[in-house]
Amino acid sequence: MADEERPGAERFLPAGRDLPALRAAAAGCRGCELYRDATQVVFSSGRAGTPLMLVGEQPGDREDIEGEPFVGPAGRILDQALGDAGIQRTDVYLTNAVKHFRFHRQGKRRIHEKPAVGNIVACHPWLEAEFGVVRPRVVVCLGATAGRSVLGRAVRIGEERGKLQEADGRSVLVTTHPSALLRLRDDPGWDAAYDAFVADLETAARAAARAAARATGEATAQATGEAAAERAAD
Ligand code: SF4
Description:
- With about 230 residues, this protein is an alpha/beta fold.
- The chain has one domain: Uracil-DNA Glycosylase, subunit E, CATH 3.40.470.
- It has eight helices and eight strands, in the order αββααβββαβααββαα.
- The strands form two sheets. It has a six-stranded mixed β-sheet, with helices on both faces.
- A hairpin with a 2-residue loop joins strand 7 and strand 8 (about 170-175).
- The N and C termini lie far apart (about 65 Å).
- Iron/sulfur cluster (SF4) binds near residues 29, 31, 41, 122 and 126.
């Protein structure tokens, strides 16, 4: 793949950095070749200021058609696991490392293809911009592609999963992608794999809640201190 095919998303970022501006600008991104065959960009769901951000790999067939992340079969597993971890889907920010669907055709079917490292790198400026706007306390990498984008290096899920680590001033937790769980649906290992996934989400949610509470406490203490200083100065 020639470099000119993947100039990167940086030049397509908007001047205004809020989620509506990012979502609108991403629709016109030509940072790599994936926009050509996909139906549309699939940016994210969720609000700025959400403490817990989940990063997946790329939109799948269903997401590509609907324009929303995690609305296909893997999304249903994620919804179930979030519920079992006591997390509302509306309380997380959901996005992907790569914003367009990569696939190849087999007859009438579109078969998912893992994004190349070049796609992950080209698309990374969108994720970096989302970090700046959403300012999550904890970022969960769902699978190796998300880990590669968030941590900027190859990630081995089996070795790193479930542990909180600090990277670029953020708490990051790596876990499996729900589509990997989907493949285990009728396997004897399903229960253990699913429970481990729920446990990882619980760990991340607890850490995000702790960090958000700490930040609120610090802001309150600072405001109280400033008010006291103003009274003293009067
Ligand atoms: S995958 Fe990312 S970098 Fe490539 S065209 Fe889509 S939004 Fe741009």
